[in-house]
Amino acid sequence: MNRLMVAVLWITVKGGLNYPFEDPELSPDMFQGDIGIPPLKQRNGMNTALHLWPNRTVFFEIEPNKFRDEHMALIRQAMNTIQEKSCVIFRNATEAERSSSLLITSQNKGCSTLVLGFRNFTNKMNLQLFDPGRGCFRIGSIIHEFLHVLGFEHQHVAQDRDQFVRIAWENINPEFKINFINNDKISNFSSFGETYDYDSVMHYIPTAFSKNGMPTIIPLKEVGQRMGQRLGMSEIDVRKLNKMYKCPGYV
User: Fold this and answer.
1) Is the separation of the CB atoms in 241 and 82 below 8 Å?
2) Is CATH 3.40.390.10 correct for 24-244?
3) Does residue 212 contact residue 189 with C-beta atoms inside 8 Å?
4) Of 181, 193, 194, 231, which shows the fewest CB atoms inside 10 Å?
């Protein structure tokens, strides 16, 4: 078995996916694998009130007849986790709010979010159906997409990333090198005073968009061994979210 097969099998087993050789957060049809409309600025977390959810409230609708009970339970669990760890709340959208709400659906392959943060149009979060605990229905993957909805970018494009990881451009499929660029100098995104977080639920896996099965993101410090975990929010993720939404005690 060659190195590519070994590497992809490792991703498949480690990530708990139930179909071979694919990570549903790394769709080739999406910006950075799971974002429908690329953000104007590529950093870690939004730092402008315009695109934060009003009153720290995500009003949402779950498209009927798309999910089984066990899927609904995991979606609710992800919401509850975020609510328990921050001042953000989730509330069913009223008829008047639907035009600028979040629609949670399973219409397409992969796990994705249409756009980062709040907009004056319907945002959409797609969760492809997998058995609970696998693919888009790992609890960390659902939380990952909810954090996109709340305004988070991926960790690997944080402004200080080159102090903590080396991007192995030579291993990246040329078609997807755009997913690793972070050369914006006038960003409205912020790390909110927090250090780079290898353990973030927003971090790519080490071999994301590899052309040869070799790592595309290499940690420069020994603590960077859990990059790409999808178990839940890290302590830094929690602090960033609370700072982003100016939760009591974090202002």
Assistant:
1) yes
2) yes
3) no
4) 193
Structure-token match 């590529």, residue found: 42
Instruction: Say if CB 232 and CB 225 are below 8 A apart.
Output: no
Positive or negative CA dihedral for 212, 166, 13, 25? negative
Element (H, E) at 79: helix 69-85
Amino acid found at 125: M
- Enclosing H/E stretch for 113: strand 111-113
Residue-wise pLDDT for 104-139, tens only, equals 999 988 999 999 999 889 999 999 999 999 999 999
d(CA 53, CA 108): 25
As given in the structure block, the two tokens for residue 94 are 């009223």
Quickly tell me which residue has 């720290």 as its tokens. Answer: 56
> What's the pTM value of the predicted model, to 2 decimals?
0.84
Active site residues: 145
